Amino acid sequence: MSLPSILSVRVRALLLTLLFVASVPLHAVSIVAPPPPRVELRDGGEPVALRDLDVRAEIVGGLARTRVEMVFVNPNARVLEGELVFPLLDGQAVDGFALDIDGVLRDAVPVEKARGKQVFEDTIRRRVDPALLETAGGNVFRLRVYPLPAKGTRRVVVWISEALEGRDGQWSYRYPLAQANKLASFALEIDVANAAQKPVLTRADGLDGALKLAAVGTRYRATVRRNDFVARGWVELAVPDGGADTPAPALVERWNGARYLYADLPLALPRLARRPASRVGLVWDSSASARQRDHAAEFSLLDAYFREMRNGEVALVRVRDVVEDGGRYTIRDGDWQALKRALQETVYDGATNLAAWKIDATLDEILVFTDGHANYGTGVLPAGLDQAKARIIPVNASASSDRAVLRRLARDGVVVDLTRGLEAASGALLTTTATILAIEAAGDADIVADAEAWSRGRLRLHGRITGEPPRELRVRVREAIRGERVVNIPLAAAVEAEPGSVPFAARLWARQRIERLEGERGLHRATIRRLGLEFGLVTRETSLIVLDTVADYARHGIEPPAPLRGEYLALREREQVRERKDRDAHLDTIAAQYADKLAWWNRDFQKTKPPLQKVAGEAYRQSHAVLAEAAPMAAGAPPPPPSPPPSAAPARDEQRLESVQVTGSRMRRADVAAAAPGQPAPVEATIALKKWTPDAPYIARLREADAKALYATYLDERVDWQDSSAFYLDVADLLFERKLDALALRVLSNLAELELENRQVLRILGYRLLQADQAALAVPLFEEVRELAPFEPQSFRDLGLAYAAAGTTQKAADALYEVAARPWDPRFAEVGLIALTELNALIATKAGIDTARYDARLLRNLPVDLRVVLSWDADNSDMDLWVTDPHGERAFYGHRLTHQGGRMSADLTAGYGPEEFMLKRAIPGTYRVEVNYYGNRQQVVSGTVSLRLAFFTGFGRPGQQEQSVILRLRDQRETVLVGEFEVK
Fold first, then answer.
1. Rounded-to-integer distance, Cα 519 and Cα 691, Å
2. 970 contacts: CB under 8 Å, gap ≥ 6
3. What's the pLDDT at 939?
């Protein structure tokens, strides 16, 4: 199915609850129903609505799988891309989805996460049907669907699996009924198999008693259907678990040469009160996202904790973009008011740098209040975690948390979870129970116990057994009162998995393994990726994808669902032959292109005034007219502006440039004297940059504030602009301007908190940190971007330049060579040539770089007097770099070689750039640098595009100088003066 090539605009669906199958215990806490789902259009228009909803839940023992079928209707007269973002609770996971293709549901298949993103975006550009389900960090998922047809509908099915929470002799299942609008059609079916007793339907809001459980053979079933349905609230079900005295056999399923088991049974484990230590650390996540935690619940928990402590000392540490010593506090008779006031006065701002926290060896116990989303700095967790003597207890009070990081902090101990209620959290924090000593099974067995379930008085096991399974498992435990004992768990006969499916027990085992690895995912990416692909799971390394045709699967090397595999194998063989030929030919092509660039560098150009000539103003108009006809720009965009002839450059505008002289931009005379023998001495040149002056509504007030009041004014304005990346960039610039660098970096780091795994935002944050000489902070961000988008050459080029700025020159060279040596999508034309130029300049100016594996044809430095490079953050956008020399001759993509030898790179009308201007020998005078924003073809309408321009003098020579500027252009055609070179 394909649709006409018309403008597609992304819509963000804030469906925070539609797929929210909560596993919160019924008695633990009164939970308000989540807000109804809604779909928002960034640029107006009628909202995309959920029209039909069909929910079917199957419960077997303590396991549940819920099928959610949704039909969305797009009332607008244009095609849309849909994005649904939703969090799930601990224990829940999406383990499948399907998209209708020509009216038939097609199941998704697993794919490496970065590859899935690449394929999805490539497929959208061809205007055919893809859908992609991926994790957006922690237990937050993002489902992207294209297209939502104009005036049409789209059907999506999502499966959610969970191990239900058990307590007090029952498992608890709940589903939220929360829709923004009236549903044309609603259906709900709940099916319970092998229940020890009849389940109890404890709540069914808005269904007026119509949902009733009835026995159907050995099962219990409840069904209801409604038209024009509106509901608020929950459906809740309690399923008896049989009790501790009659443990049910462990579920065993046979799949792919192994047996997988799952067991969940209650244990009557006595709990003893625990007195907190007297030397305690309190790590308080004070980042911007920490504002979303339930601080009232946290303070209530600390009230109980300090009452039990009575007397002691507390060392407070605040964690945001940096770690701050919060002081030491004395607790007397449970009184902690001074510490409480300090916590209540916390300013929540900046990113989350958990790795910067250094564990205090003098402490006996450390409470860590955080959601676990570590998004800044050089790691995820603090160094020496496993060697710490203190008991570390993470406390979570956020619905959206990174459970893997929290569990890793606990070192397989207990995570205190306030989202389950204060009573349960206090019990986990202030009592102690039995310890599992060993799990014994004959044969080759990998069996793990769920520490969270154990803390709530249940024994939940996940295992894989190869070979013949034993008849039972033996679990040795040590209890606080009775000492050591053995719990025997019988194993049921193995059930054969259905052909083509991954059984529930196998997926649960794999998820447990992955959760244990994700706490240190940097060390275990490959293992997580293998498990995700083998078991069809959505992880940090794998996604699920649906494509339109068999040819799409073959083109990208993604194995399709079973019905398409025969045709896929034949097509894939042909694709592999083509890919090998492309790889073999690429190095020859890039070597030939670099030879052309070298020929330009070796050529002697006249430095006289160019003769009068017809310049490319007409060529500019004609070529852009052809481009616009081939691929229309954004709707409503004006026609392309005529280009002034190169011989008629506008006069210099001192007011627009504000005569900003960049410190250190003048080449030192020692560098001039150090020019290579036989080469002309480099010229002296200075750089003047236009000062970025945003016109946002908050700017005037911030500029009027004095240095002492500026940060407080920012906090006051932030309420209205907290989701705007431009706001944080503007405020950070003002703080840098006032020499408040630490606060500027804190404000800037908020970009890492805005949207998890948004590579455009991370790129801009990295660029701005490089501009602020913070390469050590920029490198981890660009490393993350490379992991998110290894299919874009900019990911490697940006990382290589960041490595170079950080002094890691071999890594820098290898990353830049990767850009040159690897074939990329044709829309990234000449990025390899630009990276080669940077690689050779690095080799020429930095010693000790090993070039043995590099193609010798690509190794030749091209030093020049002047160089400018333009890149931007918005994909599928067209920017033009213009440079006008002292004679008034303009270099731009329609006039790429000037009379005196200025060379402009090829015009890039998609992707992120870069575009490059180089001049080997510069005549004295002023060189004017401008950017022309032609337009975009994005699916995302962002409102602004951020540009980065790097200016170089003496590029590729000793003493090379660089200055950069970041500015934003509105989503419209405009031309902006950026800066000037002044050559002496």
1. 43
2. 943, 944
3. 35
